[in-house]
C-alpha cells in the first residue's frame, strides 16, 4: 500500500543523492558529475578556515533554538486558549485561528516589506510611536542587539498559526472522558491542563521538536537575508551558515563547495536527530523511527 | 524553525551557491530549446543562440522569423533560433551541466564564467574562424583589444564592442542642478560635491542628497579613478595601469581608500545619505521615483541621460583605461560541440556588421515593437500604446548582441550628441593597461577566495557607506581580509602576474 | 495564561460542557485572543491598502492601514494581459487540485502502513522517509535527472511529482493514524474486512481533521510554488500563477534598475505593484482556507473516536 510513496521518494529524493559526491570533487561542468576530479575534503576547508565559522554556527543554533522554543510555548498557549472558547463561540474561535494562520501563506519577500514599514529608521511605524513617547527612536537596521528578538517575532508571527492548528487538533483529539473524570474529582481547569492536556500532548511535542532539530543547522535564507535587508552591521547576531555560505560562494559559484556546505549541515542535523531519537526511545516515548 | 522548506529537498545544498533566495532560474525561451543534444541543440542549418534574457522577450519566435527572412535575403543557408535565458548565470550553469548549451551564447567572466568554460574547452577557439568568416568584426578592433580575451593564448569569445573603459563619476538630477545653478563641469573630485549636497539637504525636504545601498555599490571609491587596473576587482586586487613590473596590491590597503572612507563617513554623519542604506531593489525604487539628488556610478560621455528623470553627469576618471576587465565584459562564445561553427561565426559577422539585422535583434520588428520617432537622427521609441511595461520585445541590452555603436538611439539627446561616436572615441584614446590580457586563475586559492568574498561582503559596505568611523572601519576591514587569506591571494596573484609578464603579456 | 480566577461552576454535568453564560475568565480570553488576532491581520490589511494606494503617497507618507490617494494603477499594471493571468490561474488550480489529491492519497497509504505496530519494516521505512528530510542531492543532480533522464521539463507532471511526498507531512499523518483506537479496526478485521477496507472504511473517515490539516498544507505547497516552474517550465502556456507573478516582479525590478537604459520617463509603481502581486497571489488560497477550516472544525466532532 505504501509503494507509490516509497517509489516517489526513491526517484525524486534518493536518486539525486548520488550528487552528494560533488562535495568531494572539483566540479567541472564540462566533465560532468562523474568524471570531475576528486579533491578529498578540500571543499570543506572554507567553512572552517576563517574565524567566522564559530560565530555563524553559534548564531544559527541559537536563533533556531529560540524559534523552536518560542513557537512551541506560544503555539501551545494559544491552542489552549482557543480550546477554552471553542465550544461556546466556535465562530469566533474559527476567526482567531484564521487570523493567526494567514501570515503562513506569505513569502519572506512580502514580509520584508512589512518589516521595513515598521522598522525604517526615518519613516517606520515603530519609531513614530517611540517619538510620541519622547524617545529618539532606534536605527533598527544598524542595531544588532535587537535582532534576535525581531527575527523571533517575525518567525513566530509567520509560522505559529501552523503549530496552533497542529496542537489544537492534538488537544481536541483527547477524549473528553478524562476531563469529565477530573472534573468530578474537583480538579480546576488549570489542574486539568497541567495533568491531562499537557502530558497527553507530549508525544506530539516530542515528534515536532525532533523534526525541528534536524534543521537546526539550516537557517531560513529568506528570513536572515531578506528581512534583515542584508544589513552588514547586523551580522554579529544575524549572520548564519546559509548567509555566510551564500556570501562566500556567489562570486565563484563553486558547485562542489556548495555541496560540501549542504552536506555538513545535513550531517550535523542527522547526528542530532539520531541522538535525540535514541534518547527519546530509551525513555519509552514514541520516537520518529 | 522552518515549517517546511518548500524547496529544501529539491534544491538543498545546490541552492546555496546557485543563488539561494535569489536563485530563480527562469528559462522563458519560446524556441525549441529543450531539444537536449550534446551537439549544441540547433540541428542542421539552425544556429541556436542563448543570451541574457529579460521578461520583455515574449516574441522571440516572431523576431527569429524576421531575422531568418533577412538571412535568406543575404543568401545564407542557415537560420537562427533565439533563446533568451533568464537568471542567466545560474540557468547556464545548469544547462551546461545537462548538456543544453546552445550553438552560440553570451558569455563573460561575470556571467557563465568565461574563463572556466574556456579552460574546459566548452568554448571553441575562434582564432582562425574569425578572420575567415567574420572579417568585418575581426578588423573592427585592434590586436591588443583582442588580446584582452585570450585564455592560454587563444581567443574563445567574440568581443561585443561597446565602450570598454569604466567611466566612474556621478549623475545629478537636472532639475536640481538648474534650480541651484550647480556647475557640474567644475567638479573633478567627489569631495567637491559637498556644497551641493549640503544645499539639497537644507532646501529640498524629502529628497535624499546622496544615494547609497546596503551592498555598497556605486560609491566614491573605484580603482579606475586612481589609474589602477583591477585585475581581480571582486577580491580587491589591482595593479597600476602603467606599472611595467605588474606589482599587485590590495586596493583597500591604500591612502586613497582611507581618504574615500573618510568622505563617506563625513557625508553619512552630515545626513546626506539615509541613515540605514536600503537593499539594492528598494534603493532602485526610491531612486527611480526621483527621491534622490546625486548618484555615484558610471556615466556616459554625453549629457543629459535619463534615470528616468533627466540627469547631468560628469566623468571623474582622469585616464580612461583599456583593460581585461572592461574588454572582456561582454562576449559571444561558440559551443565547442556546435553542429556548424562556420555558420555560427557568419551569424556573428551579420550581428556585428549588418545594421538592420543587428537592430532587429536589439529592438524587434519595425512597426510591431518599435517605430522611428526621428528617422533622420536614428531615434526609436515604442509604438503607441506600448511601453517598457508591456513590450513583447525590448531586450534593452544592445551590448549582448554585438557592436553597440551600430544601435539606434533611444533618446534624442543621445542622437544629437552622437553618443556612440563619443564612446568609440573613448575606446580609441584610452590608455592600455600593462596587465591587459591577464586574468587571475582562482583554482589554487579557492578556499581563500571564498572566505575573502565573505569578509569583503561583510566589512566593505559599512566602510564605503560611512557607517563606521573611517580609521577604525578600514583597519578592521584590513584585519579581516588578512584573516581571510588576503596575503596568500596576493602572493598567488603576483606569481601569476610574473609568469604573465615573462611570457610577454 | 489561564488562571484559576474563575473555577468551573459546580453543576450536575461536567464543567467543560456547561460554563456559566457570562464568565469573566472567558471574556478575558476572548479579549486576549482578539488582540493577538488583530496583530496577525494588521500587516495584511496594510498590504491590501498599499496595493490600492498611489505610488507617490507611499513614497511620501509610508504605509498605513487605509489606502492613501486611492488608485488602481498597480492592478492595471499587473492585470495588463487578462488572458494570460486567467491561463496562469487555470494551471495553478489544476496543479494544486491534482497534486493535493494524489499527494494525500499516496502519503496516507504509506502513513497507514507505518502506523501499524505489527508491521515488520515500520522502523526502517520510517527512517527511509526521514532520511530524505535531512539529506538531498542538491540542485544540479536533480536538474539533470528531471531533464535528461525523466524528460519532464515543460509538462504539468513536473509541477506535481517532485512535491508529491513531503516527509514531514507523512510523519504527521503517521502519528495521527497511530493514535486511532485499535479496537475498532480489530473488530472490523474479525468481521472479515481486509486491510484496504479497514483503511478506506475506518481509518480515513476517522482521520478527517488530520487529512484536512495536511491537505491544506499540501495545497499551500503547490499553490505557492514558483521554483519548479522556474526550473522546468519554458512554455508560457504552462506557467503557473506564482511564476507569472514572479516574472512581473522581476520585470518591474529590472525596469526600475535599468530605467536609464529603458528610456522611460515615468517612475514605475514598484512598491504598489509588489503589494498587488501579493494580494493576487494569496487571495484564492485565503478563500480556500476559510472553506477548509469550516470542514476541519466540523470533522473534529469525531463520532467514533473514544477509547
Automatic annotation (TrEMBL), chain A:
ABC transmembrane type-1 domain mapped to chain residues: 57-276
GO biological process: transmembrane transport
UniProt topology in membrane: Multi-pass membrane protein
Designated name of the protein: Carbohydrate ABC transporter membrane protein 1 (CUT1 family)
Lineage: Bacteria, Bacillati, Actinomycetota, Actinomycetes, Propionibacteriales
One GO term describing the cellular component: plasma membrane
Ranges annotated as spanning the membrane: 61-83, 95-119, 156-175, 196-217, 255-280
Family according to the record: Belongs to the binding-protein-dependent transport system permease family.
Principal subcellular localisation of the protein: membrane
Keyword set, alphabetical order: Cell membrane, Membrane, Transmembrane, Transmembrane helix, Transport
Subcellular location: Cell membrane
Keyword Transport among record annotations: yes
Organism: Kribbella rubisoli
Keyword Cell membrane: yes
From TrEMBL, chain B:
Signal sequence interval, chain numbering: 1-31
Full protein name: Carbohydrate ABC transporter substrate-binding protein (CUT1 family)
Residue intervals passing through the bilayer: none
Source organism of this protein record: Kribbella rubisoli
Xref: Gene3D superfamilies: Periplasmic binding protein-like II
Keywords: Signal
Pfam families the UniProt entry points to: DUF3502
Domain DUF3502: 435-502
InterPro entries: DUF3502 (IPR022627), TAT_signal (IPR006311)
SUPFAM superfamilies in the record: Periplasmic binding protein-like II (SSF53850)
TrEMBL record, chain C:
Membrane-crossing residue ranges in chain numbering: 27-52, 88-113, 125-150, 156-177, 198-223, 275-297
Signal peptide boundaries: none
Keyword Membrane: yes
InterPro entries noted in UniProt: MetI-like (IPR000515), MetI-like_sf (IPR035906)
Domain (ABC transmembrane type-1) ranges: 89-283
Entry GO CC: plasma membrane
Membrane topology: Multi-pass membrane protein
Record carries keyword Disulfide bond: no
Intracellular or extracellular location(s): Cell membrane
Keywords: Cell membrane, Membrane, Transmembrane, Transmembrane helix, Transport
GO BP annotation list: transmembrane transport
The family this protein is said to belong to: Belongs to the binding-protein-dependent transport system permease family.
Name of protein: Aldouronate transport system permease protein
Amino acid at each position: 500500500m505504501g509503494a507509490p510513496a516509497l517509489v516517489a521518494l526513491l526517484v525524486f529524493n534518493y536518486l539525486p543523492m548520488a550528487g552528494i559526491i560533488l562535495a568531494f570533487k572539483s566540479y567541472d561542468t564540462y566533465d560532468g558529475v562523474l568524471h570531475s576530479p576528486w579533491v578529498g575534503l578540500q571543499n570543506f576547508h572554507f567553512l572552517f578556515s576563517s574565524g567566522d565559522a564559530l560565530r555563524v554556527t553559534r548564531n544559527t543554533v541559537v536563533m533556531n533554538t529560540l524559534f523552536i522554543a518560542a513557537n512551541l510555548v506560544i503555539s501551545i498557549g494559544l491552542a489552549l486558549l482557543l480550546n477554552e472558547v471553542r465550544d461556546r463561540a466556535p465562530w469566533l474561535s474559527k476567526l482567531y485561528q484564521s487570523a493567526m494562520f494567514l501570515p503562513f501563506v506569505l513569502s519572506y519577500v512580502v514580509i520584508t516589506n512589512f518589516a521595513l514599514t515598521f522598522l525604517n529608521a526615518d519613516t517606520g511605524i515603530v519609531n513614530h510611536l517611540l517619538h510620541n513617547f519622547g524617545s529618539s527612536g532606534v536605527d533598527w537596521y544598524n542595531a544588532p542587539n535587537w535582532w534576535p528578538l525581531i527575527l523571533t517575532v517575525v518567525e513566530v508571527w509567520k509560522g505559529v498559526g501552523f503549530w496552533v492548528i497542529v496542537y489544537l487538533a492534538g488537544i481536541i483529539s483527547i477524549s473528553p472522558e478524562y476531563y469529565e473524570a477530573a472534573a468530578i474529582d474537583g480538579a480546576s481547569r488549570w489542574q486539568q491542563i497541567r495533568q491531562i492536556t499537557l502530558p497527553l500532548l507530549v508525544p506530539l511535542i516530542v515528534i515536532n521538536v525532533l523534526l525541528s532539530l534536524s534543521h537546526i543547522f539550516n537557517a531560513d535564507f529568506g528570513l536572515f537575508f531578506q528581512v534583515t535587508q542584508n544589513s552588514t552591521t547586523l551580522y554579529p547576531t544575524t549572520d548564519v551558515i546559509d548567509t555566510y555560505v551564500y556570501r562566500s560562494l556567489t562570486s565563484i559559484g563553486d558547485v562542489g563547495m556548495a555541496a560540501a556546505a549542504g552536506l555538513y549541515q545535513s550531517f550535523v542535523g542527522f547526528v542530532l536527530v539520531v541522538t535525540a531519537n535514541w534518547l527519546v526511545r530509551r525513555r519509552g516515548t514514541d520516537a520518529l523511527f | 524553525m522552518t515549517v517546511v522548506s518548500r524547496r529544501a529537498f529539491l534544491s538543498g545544498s545546490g541552492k546555496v551557491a546557485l543563488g539561494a533566495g535569489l536563485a530563480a532560474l527562469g528559462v522563458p525561451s519560446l524556441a525549441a530549446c529543450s531539444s537536449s543534444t550534446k551537439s549544441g541543440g540547433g540541428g542542421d542549418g539552425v544556429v541556436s543562440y542563448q543570451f541574457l534574457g529579460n521578461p520583455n522577450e515574449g516574441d522571440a519566435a516572431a523576431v527569429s522569423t524576421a531575422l531568418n527572412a533577412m538571412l535568406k535575403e543575404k543568401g545564407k543557408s542557415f537560420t537562427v533560433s533565439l533563446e533568451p535565458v533568464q537568471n542567466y548565470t545560474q540557468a547556464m550553469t545548469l544547462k551546461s551541466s545537462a548538456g543544453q548549451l546552445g550553438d552560440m551564447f553570451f558569455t563573460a567572466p561575470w556571467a557563465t564564467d568565461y574563463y572556466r568554460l574556456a579552460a574546459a574547452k566548452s568554448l571553441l577557439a575562434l582564432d582562425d574562424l574569425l578572420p575567415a568568416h567574420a572579417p568585418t568584426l575581426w578588423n573592427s578592433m585592434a590586436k591588443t583589444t583582442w588580446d584582452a580575451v585570450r585564455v592560454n593564448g587563444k581567443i574563445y569569445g567574440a568581443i561585443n564592442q561597446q565602450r570598454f573603459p569604466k567611466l566612474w563619476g556621478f549623475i545629478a538630477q537636472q532639475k536640481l542642478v538648474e534650480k541651484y545653478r550647480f556647475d557640474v563641469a567644475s567638479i573633478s573630485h567627489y569631495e567637491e560635491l559637498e556644497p551641493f549636497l549640503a544645499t539639497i539637504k537644507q532646501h529640498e525636504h524629502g529628497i535624499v542628497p546622496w544615494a547609497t545601498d546596503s551592498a555598497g555599490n556605486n560609491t566614491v571609491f573605484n580603482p579606475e579613478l586612481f589609474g589602477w587596473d583591477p585585475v581581480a576587482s571582486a577580491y580587491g586586487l589591482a595593479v597600476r595601469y602603467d606599472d611595467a613590473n605588474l606589482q599587485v596590491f590590495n586596493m583597500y590597503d591604500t591612502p586613497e581608500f582611507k581618504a574615500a572612507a573618510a568622505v563617506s563617513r563625513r557625508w553619512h554623519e552630515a545626513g546626506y545619505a539615509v541613515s540605514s542604506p536600503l537593499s539594492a531593489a528598494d534603493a532602485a525604487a526610491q531612486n527611480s521615483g526621483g527621491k534622490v539628488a546625486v548618484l555615484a556610478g558610471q556615466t556616459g560621455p554625453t549629457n543629459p541621460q535619463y534615470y528616468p528623470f533627466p540627469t547631468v553627469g560628469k566623468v571623474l576618471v582622469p585616464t580612461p583605461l583599456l583593460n581585461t576587465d572592461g574588454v572582456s565584459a561582454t562576449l559571444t562564445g561558440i559551443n565547442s560541440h556546435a553542429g556548424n561553427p562556420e555558420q555560427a561565426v557568419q551569424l556573428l559577422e551579420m550581428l556585428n556588421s549588418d545594421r538592420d539585422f543587428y537592430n532587429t535583434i536589439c529592438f524587434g520588428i519595425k512597426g510591431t515593437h518599435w517605430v522611428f520617432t526621428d528617422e533622420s537622427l536614428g531615434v526609436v521609441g515604442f509604438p503607441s500604446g506600448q511601453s517598457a511595461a508591456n513590450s513583447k520585445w525590448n531586450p534593452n541590452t544592445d551590448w549582448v548582441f554585438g557592436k553597440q555603436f551600430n544601435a539606434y538611439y533611444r533618446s534624442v539627446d543621445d542622437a544629437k550628441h552622437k553618443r556612440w561616436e563619443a564612446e568609440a572615441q573613448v575606446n580609441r584614446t584610452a590608455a592600455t593597461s600593462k596587465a591587459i590580457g591577464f586574468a587571475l586563475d582562482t583554482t589554487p586559492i579557492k578556499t581563500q577566495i571564498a572566505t575573502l568574498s565573505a569578509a569583503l561582503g561583510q566589512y566593505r559596505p559599512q566602510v564605503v557607506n560611512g557607517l563606521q568611523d573611517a580609521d577604525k572601519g578600514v583597519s578592521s576591514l584590513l584585519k579581516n581580509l588578512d584573516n581571510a587569506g588576503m596575503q596568500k591571494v596576493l602572493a598567488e596573484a603576483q606569481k601569476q602576474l610574473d609568469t604573465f609578464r615573462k611570457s610577454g603579456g | 495564561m489561564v488562571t484559576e480566577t474563575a473555577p468551573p461552576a459546580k453543576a450536575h454535568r461536567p464543567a467543560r460542557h456547561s460554563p456559566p453564560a457570562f464568565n469573566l475568565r472567558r471574556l478575558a480570553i476572548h479579549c486576549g485572543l482578539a488582540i493577538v488576532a488583530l496583530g496577525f491581520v494588521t500587516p495584511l490589511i496594510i498590504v491590501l491598502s498599499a496595493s490600492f494606494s498611489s505610488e507617490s503617497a507611499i513614497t511620501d507618507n509610508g504605509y498605513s492601514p487605509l489606502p492613501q490617494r486611492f488608485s488602481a494603477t498597480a492592478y492595471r499594471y499587473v492585470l495588463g494581459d487578462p488572458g494570460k493571468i486567467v491561463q496562469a490561474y487555470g494551471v495553478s488550480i489544476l496543479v494544486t487540485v491534482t497534486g493535493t489529491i494524489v499527494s494525500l492519497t499516496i502519503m496516507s497509504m504509506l502513513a497507514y502502513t507505518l502506523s501499524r505496530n505489527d508491521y515488520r519494516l515500520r522502523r526502517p521505512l520510517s527512517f527511509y522517509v526521514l532520511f530524505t528530510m535531512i539529506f538531498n542531492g542538491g540542485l544540479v543532480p536533480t536538474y539533470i535527472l528531471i531533464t535528461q533522464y525523466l524528460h519532464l521539463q515543460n509538462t504539468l507532471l513536473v509541477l506535481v511529482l517532485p512535491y508529491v511526498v513531503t516527509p514531514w507531512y507523512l510523519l504527521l499523518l503517521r502519528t495521527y493514524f497511530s493514535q486511532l483506537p485499535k479496537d475498532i479496526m480489530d473488530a472490523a478485521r474479525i468481521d472479515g474486512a481486509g486491510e484496504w477496507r479497514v483503511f478506506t472504511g475506518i481509518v480515513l473517515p476517522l482521520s478527517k481533521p488530520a487529512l484536512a490539516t495536511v491537505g491544506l498544507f499540501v495545497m499551500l505547497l503547490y499553490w505557492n510554488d514558483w521554483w519548479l516552474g522556474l526550473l522546468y517550465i519554458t512554455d508560457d502556456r504552462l506557467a503557473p500563477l506564482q511564476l507569472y507573478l514572479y516574472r512581473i516582479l522581476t520585470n518591474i525590478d529590472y525596469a526600475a534598475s535599468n530605467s536609464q537604459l529603458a528610456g522611460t520617463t515615468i517612475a514605475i509603481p514598484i512598491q504598489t505593484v509588489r503589494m498587488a502581486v501579493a494580494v493576487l497571489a494569496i487571495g484564492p488560497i485565503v478563500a480556500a482556507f476559510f472553506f477548509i477550516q469550516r470542514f476541519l472544525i466540523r470533522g473534529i466532532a469525531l463520532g467514533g473516536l473514544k477509547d
